[in-house]
Give the backbone structure.
Amino acid sequence: MDDFIVRAMLGGIGVALLAGPLGCFLVWRRMAFFGAALSHSALLGVALGFVLGINLSLGILIFCLVVALLLILLERQRMLASDTLLAILAHGALALGIVSVALIEHLRIDLMGYLFGDVLAISREDLVLIYALVVATAIALKFTWLPLLSATVSEDIAAVEGVRITPVRLAFVLLIAAVIAVGMKVVGLLLIVSLLIVPAAAARRVSRTPEQMALVAMLIGVLSVVAGLLASLRWDLPSGPAVVIAAVLIFAAITAWPRRRSRAHYPHV
């Protein structure tokens, strides 16, 4: 097997391992649109990276964190509903990102690669970054898993129990931004939320505990990446969309399968 295919597989698997548990929290907290707003705004991070001459993943990470903080602050206002505010910021930031990239005169890039992924172009440096983030995320979740679960069930009760809500929320947002930054080459900025949400939604159908759901979501994500890349190579399909289609087909198959009557024991929000 060619080196670039191996790197693509390893990179996609790494992103799936990152997206699995974090996607579960997006599903539990009903924050799918929040994740979409972050991913859409990430194109401005690409422009920032080119302008400042820094690593694009770092530029995306910085800008996603700035946008996330802005969203958290603006959600406290009462003039607009949260979903309306997220829609305005998501599409406004996406449009501004496209215009910003177009206005950089010396820059000629293929936006399709950033919007829909170019997993076959993953380098060894990208792999090092992805798996460094896998390790960092595993360590971060080890210390924030229970506080995040408590805050997911009820932030008021979690605060009474001594959970520091703001630092926990910021840590979670930072991890989501990291997934978006490294997932850009796998499925693209427009589809990365699918790799967060779809495996987690599928895993919820067959899991009984939060930990089990996170592990199953990781497994479904890995299967989606492998199946999507193999389909891409076999039928010459766009790799990012092929991965998402594989995840959706797995979700459809699990949804169609008769579910046991026993209720799952994960956060109900």
Q: What stands out?
A: DSSP finds eleven helices and no strands in the chain.
